[in-house]
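Self-study notes.
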Amino acid sequence: MEETKLFLITYFAALIGVVPPGLVNMTVAKTCVESGKKNGMYVAIGATIVVFFQALIAVLLARYIFNNPFVRNILLRAGLVIFILLTVYFFVKARRDPHIATHSTKANSNSIFKGMLVAVLNIFPIPYFVALGAALNVGGDISHDWTLMISFVLAATMGTFTTLYFYVLSFIQIEDKTALITRYSNYFMAFLMLLLVIITLIRIFYY
């Protein structure tokens, strides 16, 4: 009963947490537009694999990280550097490639590694799952309850994949606007990274 309750809470928390536009879900959408839905699905799968380990790390270290401002600030500063670099990357790419890009829509396993890479660069899930795990008191005791921890990790992984899968399905609705989306996607990604830079700075100095 306790495992089911924990699973449902974590599942919907993870699902909702990935709904706002972010590095991973927008990369999934961008891949769908540029390389087809199958490649977008592969990116989602690759990202979900990394999220599994991020959730596992978070639940194992929840108590330590949540109560250690130094570690939390290190994670935020690492994220700040990554988001600044990505902002520059997408802006330069948009300026150098103003025309519509043409990519093969043939699905390939490279998209899985692409999803894993963007998920690794996106460190926000770790503090998010840490806070969630601490709030639910998962792994907070000296003797870990492994059934609760496994339920937490699986729910976080499945909730994330569900939202990413919906991003892939939404490509059907925007398929007729592929040219327009492809043209401006890099500018949008640059703006999104800049927004994440601002949010990270606020969290560093005011939390």
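Second protein, same conventions, sequence then structure:
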Amino acid sequence: MSRSLVAGLAAAAAALTTLAAPASAAPPKPRITSDVTLPAPALADFEQGLVEDDRGVKLGGVGSGLYPAGRRGEYWMVTDRGPNGEPKIDGEKRRTFPVPEFAPAIVRVAVRHGKAEIVRTITIKQADGTPITGLSNQETHDEVPYTWDGGTQLGYDPNGLDTEDIVTDGEGGFWLVDEYGPSLVHVAGNGRILARYVPKGLGLSGAGYPVKETLPAVLAKRQQNRGFEALGVSKSERALYLSVQSPLANPDKKAGKASGTARILRVDLRTGKATGEWAYTMENVATFDPKAEQGDMKISALNVLAPGRLLLEERTDAVARLYTVDLTKATNLLGGPHDDPATSPSLESSPPATVKVAPKKLAVDLAAIPGLPGKIEGVTVLDPTTIAIANDNDFGLGTFGEDGRLIDSGVPSRIMTIKLARPLR
């Protein structure tokens, strides 16, 4: 065969290869396959007989947690503590509860034919069936609760929960996480609290359900409003994985705000006792979301892909990304010096070189997907190439008029299904 013929065949082959896979072809991207808005009834209608004056507030906050409900297109979701604000009164930020009698609730949502419907509501209750509230638990440990206008202080409630993420327990009940304690909460299928697991030494008394001090004491140093917000279940390990929303205020608030070191915990399903604890380094906000501050970085969702391997969400209110995390290659801190609040320097202030932090890798850049809402808190894996997400719309809280009625923000609660470009591993 002549050299010219060989050269011609090679050129033709190269041309065909170029046509089949052009160098300029863009890599596949995640795409939205479903986007629905949740119903938003008035709170007085949603919790009839419990809420009398809802001040114009509608149901929201249900995107705090998201978990498959067994049937395709159905999800369990959970509200947070209820509508709350933080106006500045006389130069001081105050935590307000416009509807203090609101009881955090679990809802089952069905998504069919492009619409979402609430098909079941479970009010969270004390052991005797009395609905709980979302009010602060303890003086000095929690934020002082105020009325809607920040003018009058409300009483503390040891039963109150600031509920966040949710998974099912396989027996008709649920596991939730809470920001106050912070705590892990086991709830029966009828909404009655079976047990609340809190840090050792918390000293929470007066609750109408069992409170068990099984978690590391250092977790009580969570920043205000930054307790547990992410929860996942490993059925093969009979364990739960949970994470603090932000670095602990350890030794103080200033250290927590500046820190990028968060903690992930593993808890035994049968005993509620911790069986593992790992350090996790959050992204530098300067590159993650330059318009925010380091203290705005949060961990809001967690899924278990395999024993010791997680899918974890980091976010600000505007930007969200998902990372795969390998705990098997990190130092187990449980029971060591970093569980003692007196250890100096603290893990949050200066992670020692002897501590191997859990390695991570970017899996899904949610911020790069057009049309996603802000403040994504609910993330659940449906299959290796499909996830569902939900946002927390903060009950539509904007401002209140002089008549004490809400001027709604107009931000809806949404559930979105996303097809990924590549499988999660």
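Instructor comment on the second fold: The chain has one domain: 27-419.
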